[in-house]
Design a protein that fits this description.
Blueprint (H helix, E strand, L loop, with lengths): L11 H6 L2 E6 L2 E7 L13 H16 L7 E2 L2 E10 L7 E11 L3 E10 L5 E11 L9 E2 L1
Antiparallel strand pairs: 1-2, 2-5, 3-8, 4-7, 5-6, 6-7
């Protein structure tokens, strides 16, 4: 994961939830989460808030890939629209985010969360993201 994170430390929220960045390249990212009891809702399945977090996170990564060592890019989420399509109680899920395009400062992304074992679609989302100052440039800004 360290190579994928390009020298950036995991966020506190990432550490709390326990997801792992497994792919990060221009316009696409993937994170994985192995479901544990703290991820489940009262019904015993993966909480919708955890699904939304994975979608928001992976779309943000898809919009902020940077190839310049020591630099980073950041976005803030402007809007998210989601659909919950399935449930899962155990195993690992994979969230994939894709940059759709947009302007210089605001971009759109699409995301999906699927079960890793059989690829069943659990949730999907689209979001709009705004680059932080300097992050609209592909080379980012010094960390």
């Amino acid at each position: 994961m360290d190579d994928l994170m390009k020298g950036e430390p995991a966020s506190g929220f990432q550490t709390l939830l326990g997801y792992t960045l497994v792919r990060w390249e221009e316009g696409v990212a993937e994170v994985e989460l192995t479901i544990t009891p703290q991820h489940r809702n009262r019904g015993g399945v993966l909480h919708g808030g955890a699904l939304m977090t994975l979608l928001d996170t992976v779309m943000g990564f898809a919009a902020t890939h940077c190839t310049v060592p020591g630099h980073s890019r950041r976005v803030v989420t402007l809007s998210l629209s989601s659909s919950f399509l399935g449930a899962v109680a155990e195993g690992t899920v994979v969230a994939r985010g894709t940059l759709l395009g947009g302007g210089r400062k605001i971009v759109g992304c699409r995301g999906e969360v699927r079960r890793k074992d059989d690829g069943a679609l659990l949730a999907s989302a689209e979001g709009m993201f705004k680059y932080s100052p300097g992050s609209e440039n592909p080379e980012g800004t010094p960390r």
